[in-house]
TrEMBL record, chain A:
Source superkingdom: Bacteria
Primary localization class, coarse: membrane
Protein name (record): Branched-chain amino acid ABC transporter permease
Classification via InterPro entries: ABC_transp_permease, BCAA_transport_permease
Length: 335, 394
């Protein structure tokens, strides 16, 4: 019984939240990794692209709600998602036309491109705040729980609560579908293959007649889609606030680099490594310890790091990986 | 032109009575900065009291009183000090109604008021640190210290038979001060605090914070935060994971937003906020409405009381010299004597002149304790049938 209680506590406070968070990070890291491998720069504007995409999704969700359209027990935002993706993709293409295209033409160094993306980040950040404001917004209108604490206690009679929110299930399911679709696209379709070729060797790809403009455009569209999906899932699961996506940038880059930047599989693995480290290292293990070793009454909280240091965890992992294994878990590439 | 007008006004006044003077009072509030929206109703409250006394013509030898505004900001101690300095040295005020935030108040008190010997009565500085600060008897406040709220909260929780709680606070002076004073009071009365952890405002995800609170356990969770900020995130996370079922809400959490967003999920939870009931407040609200501003805005009544208290103390001491009238403030505030409510300042001035004692109650039922700070009345609330309900005042 004690063992089961311990397991339930770990599941409730570590495994479930870390899995959902990991899936959100993985989708974000995929976008970063795609830009890195095909356009060859670290896109700092990715966090705010997520914020913009989510903002658009929220506006459309409100529109749907006003028209009385709903998605049954699922959040209306999922219906609004394709429209949000379309708007965000259009913005990505517009930004490329206005900003990045020039720097590609003059063959700017990657570090210049990074600085350019920082500029884009500020503009996009302002755009998002202008569009939807800075307040916290909850736009989840679906059923909140798959299992809530009371149901669980009645069902099992255990002392420890376990809750599973529908947004957590939606996050994981949507992430799996998105990743499967992306891998199918990159592996099986002609455009996907040309993108991979472009990524592997740009000159060779150009010689074999691949249209670079098309590759770039498709990359931006996919990135916009990934960012919007990741942002919306994060916003549904937590809550939307224009500024919090900027804070997500660090864990997202850490995920991409830990997994091996430029490698899609690595981005996904990295997302989960980062999320489980963040949650696991800052979790207070006191309760679990008392269940497992009943005779031991710990004085402290058995917490490795205070929760204030959550972002420090991803930063530390990022530095360790860069020092000892710069190519990441799954061989990425470093330009 | 303005100077000319003032000068002619002064001449006109000088003609009315041989001994009548113009007493200047500083109204030093954070007109700019993070609490700028609260400052105007406070200033208007104080100026209403000043005008009431001035118009009555009963202060000392028929003195008039003029308010001089100064901007103490809220977070910039240097700017607050400079503003206070200007009021004292250039405008030669007889006393300062202010400052607004605890940090600015401390700075002005130590750098300006004490060296120059000027009385300060703050309507809104609540930091417990001001209770023990050396002040030469020059500093008073019509706002209760957060230490007092900590005690009230501890009593409330223990009366409900809850012996151990987890505490989370917003990581700033307000949150930390309140959490510390609560912890001290609660422990002294026999309760146990399982954890006292800070949370940062403005984050998207509070699941890690909630997880460590849950691991520490406790029969209730005290959230010393802001409802429009991290407090909401913590509450949402704790409810969603089933970590806690009972919550205690201090003043930063009790608002319409709490009821709207969480009402049905927090039935049985409770809290408190500084608030006064009674006729004094009702009268004040009516007067404010007539004067065209919102008297129910936080600390507006306290500002009226602070200014009134200072002027009545001058009358009682028969002097506008801060070194003399500072000793009369407590006497006027606490009585015994006839109770004085808003709008009755003229009557109070008469009574004092006749040598009869008064007990100033004002809008916020003023009663100064200890080092000259409001005992403070708190409104205890509980969430019942999805609504915030008032239980009682304590």
């Amino acid at each position: 019984m004690e063992l089961i209680n311990a397991l339930v506590a770990v599941t409730n406070y570590v495994i479930i939240p870390a899995t959902a968070y990991g899936a959100q990070l993985a989708l974000g890291a995929l976008g970063v990794t795609l830009i890195y491998s095909i356009l060859r720069f670290s896109n700092f504007a990715h966090g705010d692209t997520m914020a913009f995409g989510t903002g658009v999704v929220i506006l459309i969700t409100w529109g749907f709600q006003a028209m009385g359209i709903s998605f049954g027990p699922l959040p209306t935002a999922l219906l609004a998602l394709p429209f949000g993706i379309a708007v965000t993709a259009a913005l990505m293409l517009g930004t490329d036309k206005v900003v990045y295209q020039y720097y590609r033409k003059v063959r700017a160094a990657p570090v210049v491109m990074v600085m350019v993306s920082v500029g884009v980040m500020f503009v996009m950040n302002a755009l998002t705040r202008f569009l939807i404001g800075v307040d916290q917004i909850n736009f989840d209108d679906g059923t909140r729980f798959v299992i809530n604490a009371r149901q669980w206690r009645d069902m099992t009679g255990l002392h420890e609560p376990l809750t599973l929110r529908s947004t957590q299930v939606i996050t994981v399911v949507t992430a799996i579908i998105t990743v499967a679709a992306l891998f199918w696209f990159l592996g099986k379709t002609r455009t996907g293959k040309s993108m991979r070729a472009f990524s592997d060797n740009e000159d060779l790809a150009l010689l074999s007649g691949i249209d670079p403009n098309k590759v770039v455009a498709v990359t931006w569209i996919i990135t916009g889609a990934l960012a919007t999906i990741a942002g919306t899932l994060y916003g549904l699961d937590k809550s939307f606030k224009a500024f919090t996506y900027f804070q997500l940038l660090l864990p997202i880059f850490a995920s991409a680099i830990v997994g091996g930047i430029g490698n899609p599989v690595g981005a996904i693995a990295g997302g989960f490594v980062i999320s489980f480290s963040e949650v696991g290292l800052t979790y207070a293990w006191k309760k679990v310890a008392t269940y497992l070793v009943p005779s031991w009454e710990p004085d402290g909280l058995v917490q490795l790091l205070s929760t204030d240091y959550k972002y420090a965890v991803s930063f530390t992992i990022l530095i360790l990986v860069l020092i000892f294994k710069p190519t990441g878990l799954f061989k990425g590439k470093i330009v | 032109m303005k100077k000319l007008l003032l000068a002619s006004a002064a001449i006109a006044l000088g003609a009315t009575g041989a001994y009548a003077d113009d007493v200047k009072m500083g109204v030093l509030l954070g007109f700019t900065g993070p609490l700028e929206s609260l400052a105007p109703p406070m200033a208007q409250g104080a100026e209403m009291a000043i005008k009431e006394v001035s118009d009555s013509g009963k202060l000392l030898g028929g003195d008039t009183v003029t308010a001089v505004r100064g901007d103490s900001t809220c977070v910039d101690a240097a700017a607050a000090t400079a503003a206070g300095e200007t009021l004292v040295t250039t405008d030669k005020v007889a006393g300062i109604m202010g400052a607004m935030c605890s940090g600015a108040t401390t700075a002005v008190l130590q750098n300006v008021a004490m060296p120059n010997g000027v009385v300060m009565i703050s309507p809104s500085a609540t930091s417990p640190a001001l209770s023990t600060l050396e002040d030469d008897g020059l500093f008073f406040r019509t706002a209760p210290s957060d230490a007092r709220q900590g005690e009230v909260m501890a009593d409330e929780i223990l009366e409900k038979g809850i012996k151990n709680v987890a505490v989370t606070y917003t990581n700033n002076d307000y949150g930390k001060g309140l959490a510390d004073s609560f912890e001290k009071a609660y422990k002294a009365k026999g309760g146990t605090v399982t954890i006292s952890a800070a949370h940062e405002d403005g984050k998207g995800d509070y699941s890690a914070e909630v997880a460590s609170l849950a691991s520490a356990g406790g029969d209730a969770l005290v959230i010393a935060g802001y409802i429009d900020q991290g407090g909401s995130g913590i509450l949402r996370g704790a409810l969603d994971t089933g970590a806690f079922e009972k919550f205690v809400f201090p003043d930063g959490m009790v608002s319409q937003t709490l009821e709207d967003n969480f009402g049905s999920e927090i039935n049985g939870s409770f809290g408190q906020l500084p608030d006064s009931a009674g006729d004094g407040m009702k009268t004040y609200l009516g007067m404010a409405e007539k004067a065209g501003f919102d008297g129910s805005s936080a600390y507006s009544g306290g500002a009226y009381d602070a200014a009134a208290l200072m002027l009545l103390a001058m009358q009682a001491a028969d002097s506008t010299d801060p070194k003399v009238y500072k000793d009369k403030v407590m006497e006027v505030a606490n009585g015994p004597g006839e109770k004085i409510y808003p709008g009755e300042l003229g009557k109070a001035l008469d009574l004092i002149k006749e040598g009869k004692p008064v007990d100033y109650e004002g809008a916020t039922a003023v009663n100064l304790i200890g080092n000259g700070e409001a005992a403070g009345t708190f409104r205890e609330i509980t969430i019942k049938d999805d609504k915030i309900e008032t239980v009682k005042y304590r």
